[in-house]
């Protein structure tokens, strides 16, 4: 169950990153509110997952999901560049996440 909660926390990290971008420096009310709620929920779920998962594993997976997820959202929804080097970087992050998962007993 901790892994499911951790993935949900990572997805919420992507949500708040996207809406932070949409908030235009916290000048737009609705995206700012969504950012704040998603941030709080993401951190809360991360803390729940850390009840059973090691700190290093949980935090690495959480930030990795956020980083790769935000990268994909940027390309798909915001038209950001998808160069070979950026894609390779994302693949390497995912490889690190997989290694972190398989090296954890929980």
From TrEMBL:
InterPro entries: EmrE-like, Small_drug/metabolite_transptr, Small_multidrug_res. Signal peptide: none annotated. The keyword Zinc does not apply. Belongs to the drug/metabolite transporter (DMT) superfamily. Small multidrug resistance (SMR) (TC 2.A.7.1) family. Gdx/SugE subfamily. GO terms for molecular function: transmembrane transporter activity. It is a multi-pass membrane protein. GO terms for cellular component: plasma membrane. Keywords: Cell membrane, Membrane, Transmembrane, Transmembrane helix, Transport. This is Guanidinium exporter. One of its GO terms (biological process) is xenobiotic detoxification by transmembrane export across the plasma membrane. The chain crosses the membrane at residues 27-46, 58-78, 84-102. It is found in: Cell membrane.
């Amino acid at each position: 169950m901790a892994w499911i909660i951790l993935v949900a926390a990572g997805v919420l990290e992507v949500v708040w990153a996207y809406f932070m971008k949409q908030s235009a420096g916290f000048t737009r009310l609705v995206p700012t509110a969504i950012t704040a709620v998603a941030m709080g929920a993401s951190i809360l779920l991360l803390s729940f997952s850390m009840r059973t998962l090691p700190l290093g594993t949980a935090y690495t997976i959480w930030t990795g999901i956020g980083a790769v997820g935000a990268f994909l959202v940027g390309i798909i929804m915001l038209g950001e560049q998808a160069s070979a080097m950026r894609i390779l970087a994302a693949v390497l992050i995912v490889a690190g996440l997989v290694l972190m998962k398989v090296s954890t007993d929980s």
